[in-house]
Write a structure and sequence with these properties.
Strand order of the largest sheet of chain B: 4-3-2-1-5
Largest sheet of chain A: 5 strands, parallel
InterPro entries (chains B, D): DsrEFH-like, Sulphur_relay_DsrE/F-like, Sulphur_relay_TusC/DsrF
Oligomer: heterohexamer
Number of helices of chain A: 5
CATH topology of chain B: Hypothetical Protein Ychn, Chain: A
Chains: A alpha/beta, B alpha/beta, C alpha/beta
Low-confidence stretches of chain A: none
Order of helices and strands of chain B: EHEHEHEHE
Structural class of chain B: alpha/beta
Largest sheet of chain B: 5 strands, parallel
Strand content of chain A: 15-25%
Family (chains B, D): Belongs to the DsrF/TusC family.
Protein name (chains A, E): Sulfurtransferase complex subunit TusB
Structural class of chain A: alpha/beta
Strand order of the largest sheet of chain A: 4-3-2-1-5
Organism (chains A, E): Vreelandella neptunia
CATH architecture of chain A: 3-Layer(aba) Sandwich
InterPro entries (chains A, E): DsrEFH-like, Sulphur_relay_TusB/DsrH
Number of domains of chain A: 1
Radius of gyration of chain B: 14 Å
Helix content of chain B: 25-40%
CATH superfamily of chain B: DsrEFH-like
Shape of chain B: globular
Mean pLDDT of chain B: 93
Largest interface: C-F, 31 and 31 residues
Number of strands of chain B: 5
Number of helices of chain B: 4
Chain lengths: ~100, ~120, ~130, ~120, ~100, ~130
């Protein structure tokens, strides 16, 4: 079981490579530029990872995307929630 | 379209992801401060610089929005964005700051031809 | 309580990775965990530059890492090969290379990639910021 | 697939475009020199590191191929590449160095699960 | 009339943005990572720019792609040819 | 004969832009043109670091730019704001910021963005490497 950390936007090589690497029990945290995924509720990873993919709210706020994430009903977490996921998952891989 | 002596600064990078946006806007502001007319074209993720709800960034990270708000004081009033790019990002003009001019994507090539000086960030 | 190892591979002001790593480190410590070490590799070596002088309204990341070290005695290791290539060196490396100046000093330590692997081995959690 | 103690190094960047490839391979070589078993997975443009016709680079730029050729000496003999990635790049195995193992894209997730230590470059 | 210099691979944001910006009389030089375009003769820019798009041969050679460019019958130029294009075109824009 | 202005925005060893720019500059000069100046901006400011110490089998780009300057008297201007933020400063800036060392020296000159615009104005051809 792996926690995937994506730092680049959907459509980037990093995002595509992560999508190839995600397995059934894995979770995904979207940070930095990856939070622009909030703009696109049709992005395949939302479906692929269902209830196990989250946007980092601090990075959404910084970029003015917090309202849009709420409107699109996308799951967010704060830094504390990010830490909780790293506690739960022994391994993490960052895609950049 | 007539040729213009204005400097065209193209902004293609999002806030906080790198320093491209900041340093591109700095170049635009310095040119304007030196009295050169400046036009801005926002492409791709550069459009995110215009989102009006932007916060101050992570602690200690400088926000971009105050710089965008300063453009008008420097007489930079051409902020071009293509309709297609907005649609691709699922954004409406309501989410952007005031003063943005929408153009069609097919006009972009013409804009570049029109300007004798271009800086691409 | 767990040991976290952090790998930082982005440069300040060119990448958001150092900011993310620093916020993450503080949050991990707030939760009662420990940070076993931070390893700076690739462009991340620029975090160690003592000559960094950002505008006053921006965080000085070099100073922020030192503060983290002072509060929690966290080792700050910098890959020597990545650093030398990018213009970062300690006083002893400066002497060895015949340079008049240096821009890496304690608590940042120049070290080899072996330290990175060792950090990964002894950390219960290993997180990369790049 | 059984869990392995080997370090999995993922290579995703092309030669000459940045230092990611070089510094990723360096990490793999150092781990191997310290006696740790190392496996390599090439994804996306990382596959270009395996092209056998690579030259020495622009004057003064170091070539990657000698480093790839050194992997075997360090007992790094697992060089995984996905068939799909090769196809996407319109490449055949003939253009790659010897010793590459083709896998299917759907096996990638399993490989990551299998390795307890991963470094992603 | 503009000389476009592309430094990133087809599929990158830089490449897509350049394709939006190219006009009828413009030329394109592909350098650095952009020479990986040699692998894909179906890339739209080949059609879009026809006889006015070139791969820098030094950068092809460095990456082991020179033979593939020949096999795919794609036009190359050396650094001297690149300079000639900058002589011909008053303006250039680099996409990175 | 024409005047070429070059803008370099990539760091050595992290981007191929400096290599491309240097090869381009030499080819332009070989053709009988002149290079009116090179301006280093964004991560390109790292080209000016006097502390760069790459392995011996790699080109030292700092030295290669100085050689270009010595042979052809080409101004090498470095954006001061981009440089300070990234840990690059001259002796006088080091004094102003209370730093013990500096890593930018002549023929590299710290200057403002006005110089970039001025270079673009007076060059018949202006080429960006990034």
């Amino acid at each position: 079981m792996i926690l995937h950390i994506l730092t680049k936007a959907p459509g980037s090589s990093a995002a595509l490579q992560m999508q190839q690497a995600v397995a059934g029990q894995d979770s995904v945290v979207l940070i930095e530029e990856a939070v622009t995924a909030a703009l696109d509720p049709t992005w395949k990873a939302w479906q692929q990872c269902q209830s196990r993919i989250y946007l980092l709210s601090e990075d959404l706020l910084a970029r003015g995307l917090a309202t849009i994430a709420v409107d699109n009903q996308l799951p967010t977490l704060e830094m504390g929630g990010f830490i909780s996921l790293t506690e739960k998952y022994e391994k993490s891989v960052t895609w950049y | 379209m007539a040729a213009t002596n204005a400097l065209l600064v193209i902004i293609r990078h999002a806030p906080h992801s790198s320093n491209w946006l900041r340093e591109g806007l700095d170049a635009a502001l310095v040119a304007a401060a030196f009295g050169q007319p400046v036009h801005l074209l926002f492409m791709g993720k550069g459009i995110l610089a215009l989102l009006k709800e932007q916060g101050s960034g992570a602690p200690g990270q400088k926000a971009t929005l105050p710089t965008i708000d300063m453009l008008e004081m420097y007489d930079i009033d051409k902020l071009w964005v293509t309709k297609e790019a907005l649609q691709n990002m699922h954004l409406s003009t309501d989410s952007l700051v005031d003063g943005v001019t929408l153009i069609a994507e097919r006009e972009v090539a013409g804009l570049l031809q029109q300007h004798t000086k271009i800086l691409n960030f | 309580m767990m040991q976290y190892g952090l790998l930082v591979m982005g440069a300040p002001y060119s990448s958001p990775a150092p900011h993310s790593a620093l916020r993450f480190a503080h949050a991990v410590l707030d939760r009662g965990h420990q940070v076993a070490g931070v390893f700076f590799y690739h462009d991340g070596v620029h975090n160690a530059s003592s000559l960094m002088a950002p505008p006053q309204d921006e965080l000085n990341l070099h100073d922020a890492w030192i503060e983290l070290h002072q509060q929690h005695a966290i080792p700050l290791d910098v890959c020597i090969a990545a650093a030398l290539r990018r213009g970062l060196m300690s006083e002893s490396e400066a002497q060895r290379h015949g340079k008049q100046a240096f821009n890496i000093a304690s608590p940042f330590e120049l070290t080899g990639l072996g330290q990175l692997l060792e950090l990964q081995q002894r950390s219960a959690r290993f997180i990369t910021f790049a």
